[in-house]
Specification:
Layout (H helix, E strand, L loop, with lengths): L56 E13 L4 E12 L6 E4 L4 E7 L2 E2 L1 E5 L2 E5 L9 E10 L4 E3 L3 E8 L2 E5 L19 E10 L3 E4 L2 E2 L11 E12 L6 E4 L2 E7 L2 E7 L10 H16 L7 E6 L6 E2 L6 E3 L5 H12 L4 E3 L6 H16 L6 H9 L23 H19 L1 H14 L3 E3 L1 H12 L4 H8 L8
Helix pairs in contact: 1-2, 2-3, 3-5, 4-5, 5-6, 5-8, 6-7
This protein binds arginine (ARG) and zinc ion.
Length: 471
């Protein structure tokens, strides 16, 4: 049960202090949100993750402050969210599966709250008027646990031998900070992480230690800022012993780091990152963020993740093509984000196709040849079993359906519209949807506009059939 009665609806229109029957409030006041104050929804209606994200507000900024104690692996944290109500809210939800909460404040005043599964339901003292900004501060402490899923693996706060790393696709952000945890709601971020002086802290964006107090009692605070909008699942913090390299690529900082025990495997991380960013900026257009880089650590998650501006690589993920893939996601997945998880092929298909293109342009097999090899899979075989454009929640990272057939879909589109239009499409798609979110329909519309062709049948055959498309 959700607790306590919510506060009386507050009528915010100037001077209205008495409670007036809602029907009597003229709708002309809609600009400041007249009408009943009702709860925000517990999800955004994503069919794969019904509880991911929340309705009724829009986050503008997350300020995540953490203190990490390696001996106990405990976190003591305060996350402050700046958001805007999109309706009159009597209460609202955050997604949070992290450690014990000691306090929740809304607009600087204590708010009541209840935890219900992954939902943190917050009831402020006063309703939050539509269109108005508000802040939520959540204070919590304890040992965070990652989100483990049978089909999708492990994501969120991951303990390492000498620290911790947070990386969170698709819904692990809630393991370490309260969030509107859906890719549709991007926000800027600051991370202020306090850790023992002997450890290095990295995060998304750029270091910015202005206004941060100096070391105390053997602990030091490091601040990082991501000043471009970012989906919560792309938020990243890495704490531990790291060998750090700093340089620039295309005039922007390139900051890479690896666990010293991975020096041999990742010795090329820095130079390969620079090389990939240079090539991708030529093919996809201007790099969308203000710095780049990468972080390699022993995570035991068996994947790499395109955490915004600075991907994370598990041991075993050091291949040049993996780096090309994660950095291609900076354009496709991070800057151009998803409105719905079922369109995950838009992320993985384009990032995988970047690998095919990279090989084609660096003395490897042509994309056509790579395509042809996969196309040999017999009709009726498991390779064609899922729908690339709607693989189901558990199939969202299916290698064949999403990564390979996603890239094949991109290649089929290229063949249909020709190279010139195709490369214009890649750049236009990235430019027009920079720092935004998209659907497959948006891609279809743009491809049809640029090519002047009807592409419904091609999209249907490659994305919405569990069958081998005709040649
Ligand atoms: N997006 C990652 C990539 O670039 C894969 C993430 C896999 N995540 C997971 N929970 N299995 O390939
Ligand atoms: Zn990927």
């Amino acid at each position: 049960m959700l607790r306590r009665s919510s506060p009386w609806p507050r009528l915010v229109a100037a001077g209205l202090t008495a409670v007036i029957p809602l029907a009597a409030v003229p709708s002309a006041r809609a600009s400041t949100g007249s009408g009943a104050y009702t709860p925000g929804s517990a999800g955004l209606g994503d069919p794969y993750f019904p509880l991911a994200g929340n309705g009724g507000y829009d986050v503008a900024h997350y300020a995540v402050r953490l203190r990490f104690t390696p001996e106990t692996r405990r976190l003591s944290a305060t996350t402050t969210i700046t958001a805007r109500a999109t309706k009159n809210l009597s209460r609202f939800d955050l997604d949070f599966s992290g450690p014990a909460i000691s306090e929740v404040e809304v607009n600087g005043r204590r708010a009541s709250y209840v935890r219900k599964g992954q939902e943190l339901v917050v009831t402020p003292r006063r309703g939050l008027p539509s269109g108005k900004k508000f802040t939520v501060m959540v204070t919590y402490a304890g040992r965070p646990k990652p989100i483990k899923d049978r089909a999708l693996g492990v994501a969120g706060w991951i303990d390492t031998e000498d620290g911790a790393v947070a990386l969170a696709e698709p819904d692990g952000a809630r393991s370490w900070f309260p969030a509107n945890d859906h890719p549709r709601d991007k926000a800027t971020f600051t991370f202020e992480v306090t850790a023992p002086e002997g450890l290095t802290v990295l995060a998304n964006g750029e270091p910015d230690n202005s206004g941060v107090a100096g070391p105390r009692d053997g602990y030091r605070t490091s601040k990082w800022t991501m000043r471009h909008p970012m989906a919560p699942y792309l938020a990243m913090v890495a704490i531990g012993k790291f060998t750090v390299s700093r340089g620039t690529v295309g005039g922007k900082p390139n900051i890479t780091a690896y666990d010293p025990s991975l020096a041999k495997e990742f010795k090329r991380l820095h130079s390969t990152t620079a090389k990939a960013i240079r090539w991708e900026s030529k093919v996809f257009g201007d790099y969308p963020f203000s710095s780049t880089g990468g972080i390699a650590d022993r995570l035991d998650v068996d994947y790499a993740l395109e955490t915004q501006g600075r991907p994370v690589y598990d041991t075993g993920m050091s291949d040049e093509l993996v780096i090309v893939h994660e950095l291609a996601h900076q354009w496709f997945g991070d800057s151009v984000g998803l409105r719905s998880w079922k369109d995950i092929w838009l992320n993985e298909g384009f990032a995988s196709y970047a690998e095919w293109l990279y090989q084609e342009q660096h003395g490897g097999p042509s994309a056509e040849r790579t395509f042809a090899e996969h196309y040999r899979h017999r009709a009726g075989s498991d390779f064609w079993k899922l729908k690339t454009g709607d693989p189901g929640r558990d199939g969202m990272f299916d290698w064949n359906a999403i990564y390979v057939r996603g890239a094949m879909t991109v290649h089929a589109l290229r063949k249909e519209i020709g190279d010139k239009t195709f490369f214009t499409l890649l750049r236009t798609w990235a430019r027009q949807n920079r720092h935004s979110t998209v659907t497959t329909k948006d891609l279809l519309a743009l491809a049809e506009r640029l090519s002047g062709r009807d592409l419904d049948d091609l999209f249907d055959a490659w994305l919405y059939r569990a069958a081998k498309p005709k040649p």
